[in-house]
């Protein structure tokens, strides 16, 4: 990132901040990924069933939503109820057949605010960045009136977020809060007899925090990112030391383009993305890459997403990130075709991909054969040993702002696992009906009655 990438303290709104940033930014000429001759596709006869996981957030119990959102005070027995809810949601994941699980981020308002609260320096108030696709499609965005999360989804609903107005440091109180959350998840895993090697724990990347929370203090965007990385290093290393597999959430590398950086060119955004990855890597240095996941997405809100940056413009930056495991949107209408991108340049051989094979924004439940086809598309490039089934994004990104009902969420999880198990198996009759797969008892009974 060029040192001239400056955000003035007076730039309170995302649009003004981006104008100042763009005007001062010096960008090197975009260097395209090194093109290579596509490798020979993997032999489908070598494909084996793959494991399954998910991105992180899950629907919270209805009684919990007003508590985690701060609208109600927690009851006296909240700690016990939260533990029971944690055990319950982890058991549901196991029952669905998932291999790597978590606590569904139940106790969090969203996936970034808890980390921000554990640091000093965010005493200001800023305007949440808008999404460029919804700014253009105003008729559609009206449907989202009243929905408050981390982005401004419609001009009729103002969304404010914290902004940086002082030096950033990770506090002792913040570390104690993190430890309490980790202890709860660890206790639930122990009660279920699940080793922590199969439990992941999410935390936002420095760039993601900068995407949602504006900077009114640091002279440049690069210095803002550096300060965030220096502080978040404490959280990343604590999660790893506790025995969990760390997941760094990195929507800044995708969604950041049409939100916080919507006024910048693609070359300018690539410079910012490189800065984000460089500083995240510095914060993760010293950890085992094989125990770190990352999630890249273009936003989990229901929208047209026609301003999403193509994967081809960021893929070479993504694979330079420290984590060995890469979760990426790979099944929704805007990104399902992009499995082809990975064959266009040399990908480090240690990288393991977790493509999204079920959409977290549509109620249409994917067929297991479609799940298998999506996984096989990745396996043709990387082989099944480097592929794990995953969801496109989280199912409960912000408490109460769910795109889907819980019953649909769990059915999608089950069909994902079923499809993942069928990879490499004969498919002659795979598309005839769902009865060819191991389905939940209720589905089988309903089919029998219908017959």
Compose a concise summary of this entry:
The protein has 451 residues and is α/β, with parallel strands linked by helices. The protein contains 14 helices and 9 strands. Residues 1-14, 432-437 and 446-451 have low confidence and may be disordered.
Question: What can you see in these coordinates?
Answer:
The structure is a single chain. The chain is built from 14 helices and 9 strands. With 451 residues, the protein is α/β, with parallel strands linked by helices. The chain has a single domain (14-425, 432-450), classed as TIM Barrel (Alpha-Beta Barrel). It has a 6-stranded parallel sheet with strand order 3-5-6-7-8-9. β8, α12 and β9 (390-391) form a beta-alpha-beta unit. The longest helix is centred in the middle third of the chain and has 21 residues, at 172-192. It is globular and about 60 Å long. Mean pLDDT is 86; it is low at 1-14, 432-437 and 446-451.
What's the topology here?
Blueprint: H1 14-24, H2 65-68, H3 78-96, H4 113-117, E1 124-127, H5 132-136, H6 138-141, E2 160-164, H7 172-192, E3 200-204, H8 206-212, E4 214-215, H9 221-241, E5 245-249, H10 266-284, E6 292-296, H11 315-318, E7 325-328, E8 352-358, H12 368-382, E9 390-391, H13 406-421, H14 441-450
Parallel strand pairs: 2-4, 3-5, 5-6, 6-7, 7-8, 8-9
Antiparallel strand pairs: 1-2
């Amino acid at each position: 990132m060029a040192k001239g990438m400056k955000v003035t303290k007076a730039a309170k709104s995302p649009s003004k901040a981006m104008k100042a940033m763009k005007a001062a930014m010096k960008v090197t000429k975009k260097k395209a990924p090194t093109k290579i001759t596509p490798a020979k596709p993997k032999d489908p006869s070598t494909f084996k069933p793959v494991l399954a996981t998910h991105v992180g957030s899950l629907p919270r119990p209805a009684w919990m939503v007003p508590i985690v959102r701060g609208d109600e005070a927690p009851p006296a027995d909240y700690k016990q109820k939260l533990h029971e809810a944690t055990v319950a949601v982890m058991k549901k994941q196991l029952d669905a057949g998932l291999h790597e699980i978590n606590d569904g981020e139940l106790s969090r308002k969203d996936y970034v605010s808890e980390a921000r609260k554990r640091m000093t320096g965010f005493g200001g108030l800023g305007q949440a960045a808008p999404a460029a696709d919804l700014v253009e499609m105003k008729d559609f965005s009206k449907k989202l009136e009243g929905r408050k999360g981390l982005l401004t989804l419609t001009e009729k609903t103002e969304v404010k977020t914290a902004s940086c107005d002082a030096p950033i440091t990770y506090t002792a109180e913040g570390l104690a809060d993190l430890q309490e959350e980790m202890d709860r998840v660890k206790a639930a895993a122990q009660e279920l007899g699940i080793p922590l090697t199969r439990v992941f724990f999410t935390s936002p990347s420095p760039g993601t925090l900068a995407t949602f929370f504006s900077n009114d203090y640091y002279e440049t965007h690069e210095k803002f990112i550096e300060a965030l990385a220096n502080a978040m290093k404490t959280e990343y290393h604590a999660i790893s030391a506790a025995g969990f597999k760390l997941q760094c959430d990195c929507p800044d590398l995708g969604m950041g383009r049409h939100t916080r950086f919507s006024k910048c060119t693609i070359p300018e955004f690539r410079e910012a993305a490189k800065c984000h990855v460089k500083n995240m890597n510095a914060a993760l240095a010293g950890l085992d890459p094989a125990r770190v996941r990352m999630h890249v997405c273009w936003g989990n809100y229901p929208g047209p997403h026609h301003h999403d940056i193509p994967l081809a413009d960021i893929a070479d930056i993504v694979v330079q990130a420290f984590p060995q495991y890469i979760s990426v949107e790979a099944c929704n209408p805007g990104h399902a075709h992009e499995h082809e991108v990975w064959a266009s340049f040399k990908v480090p051989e240690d990288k393991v991909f977790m493509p999204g094979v079920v959409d977290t924004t549509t109620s249409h439940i994917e067929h297991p054969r479609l799940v298998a086809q999506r996984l096989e598309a990745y396996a043709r490039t990387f082989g099944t040993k480097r592929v794990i089934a995953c969801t496109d994004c989280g199912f409960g990104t912000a408490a109460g702002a769910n795109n889907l009902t819980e019953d649909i969420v769990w059915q999608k999880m089950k069909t994902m696992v079923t499809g993942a198990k069928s990879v490499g198996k004969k498919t002659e009759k795979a598309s005839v009906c769902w009865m060819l797969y191991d389905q939940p008892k209720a589905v089988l009974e309903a089919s029998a009655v219908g017959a």
